[in-house]
């Protein structure tokens, strides 16, 4: 199941007036509210115990004890993520120190990315892709490299999909989208202007949107997406180059692609075998 804090972010827009303040305070101070009894939490947030219990049920939890257990787990993951933050290379770093930073960051990105995502969200993304008339891919900069990887994988199995490096070309694909199309948008920050412009245009045209992002649910990209696949934030957003974020994106793409292939394994394995490019002896 996806992280509790991620689910709260997703639910906050549809929360009832009584729940809205409770959700906001939990998201603003999860550390301070962890470990409290239901009555202590009610007093701190000015929400009745029945409102807290109702919120737990709406989030798919078995009860308040389950809420606290998952909140404590989420906080542990966040602390682990903060410890895994990769600093920019320091001029005094040795090659060995650089290797430890890079490899450690990549391992942390993949481990935390797996913990952040609910397998059911991958299944929902596969549902959208399976039913899609056309899949359009969007990404700029380093995220474009990840989009190219997914584009190549989908081409290998004969899926109709589009990707172009030029932003104006991506905008044309978005503008020509139709109901039944799926847009897959990749942006670690969730705030890439060009990607968000394409997503808005694709939504206006009736396309469904899948985003791959490290921004959580509180970004323009996530808010405009039907499904959100999360990349662990083990890099500062103000970074000199995408390193672990790219590894996290590629990990999500591999899970998404293999889940998609497994949905109709016999068909796609046959296409993969047929499309294999043999090396010349």
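Sequence proposed for the structure above (281 residues):
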């Amino acid at each position: 199941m996806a992280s509790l804090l991620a689910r709260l972010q997703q639910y906050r827009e549809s929360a009832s007036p009584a729940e809205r303040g409770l959700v906001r305070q939990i998201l603003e101070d999860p550390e301070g509210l962890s470990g409290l009894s239901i009555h202590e939490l009610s007093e701190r947030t000015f929400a009745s115990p029945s409102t807290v219990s109702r919120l737990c049920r709406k989030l798919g939890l078995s009860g308040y004890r389950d809420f606290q257990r998952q909140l404590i787990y989420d906080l542990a993951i966040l602390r682990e993520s903060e410890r895994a933050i990769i600093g920019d290379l320091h001029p005094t770093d040795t090659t060995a120190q650089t290797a430890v930073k890079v490899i450690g960051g990549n391992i942390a990105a993949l481990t935390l990315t797996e913990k952040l995502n609910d397998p059911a969200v991958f299944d929902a993304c596969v549902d959208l892709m399976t039913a899609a008339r056309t899949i359009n891919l969007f990404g700029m900069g380093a995220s474009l490299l990840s989009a190219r990887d997914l584009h190549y994988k989908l081409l290998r199995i004969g899926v109709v999909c589009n990707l172009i490096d030029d932003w104006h070309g991506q905008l044309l694909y978005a503008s020509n989208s139709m109901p039944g199309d799926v847009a897959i948008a990749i942006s670690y920050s969730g705030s890439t202007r060009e990607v968000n412009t394409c997503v808005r245009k694709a939504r206006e045209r009736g396309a469904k949107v899948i985003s791959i992002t490290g921004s959580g649910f509180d970004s323009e990209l996530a808010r405009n997406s039907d499904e959100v696949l999360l990349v662990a934030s083990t890099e500062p957003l103000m970074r000199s180059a995408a390193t672990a974020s790219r590894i996290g994106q590629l990990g999500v793409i591999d899970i998404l692609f293999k889940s998609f292939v497994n949905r109709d394994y016999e068909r796609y394995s046959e296409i993969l075998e047929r499309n294999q490019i043999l090396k010349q002896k």
